[in-house]
Amino acid sequence: MTAPGIHLAAVPRGDGSFDITEDVVLRSEVALIRLQLPQSGTKLVGMMRPTKPIATSLKVTADDQPVPMETTKLAAARDLPLTVAATKLRLVYRLSGSTVRSLPSETGRASAAISPLTAGVDPTLPTNYQISGGSLLNAVCPEMTETRCAVGEPPGLGVQQGIPAGQSLAVLQLDLPMQP
Q: What is the rounded CA–CA span in Å between residue 180 and residue 174?
């Protein structure tokens, strides 16, 4: 990735959590980033139930340098100072608590709210999602004027590319992979 933007690769797990890698290229150097979790599913179409998103095992690199952190858990929005002013960021973490299982439906059917932790750094950055594993059935982006953001046809369904980071909250309907 060389052009400014956010690439979020999410791999759903059978327990409803996601292994996520965010690669971010900024338009200008920053020395501080604001990290924020996806909003609760309380008022989100397709969920309508409260969720408590949390990111764990968080690792951040800025221009290929590890960023020391007091804690690798993110339970609320916070500012993270970088060791060097940077234009390239990579975040790797597990997102849990943002999924609502559908009942009574097929095992593994769920809705999940995801968005980049870095969406607030520059709300104009184009955001591209890559969802792999599980089976994506639909995607809605409630912050956008045209809220349906699924593209393609199952089993090759994806999420619309280039969504501005400030509107990049996506509610995914998917079949979670089977737990081992």
A: 18
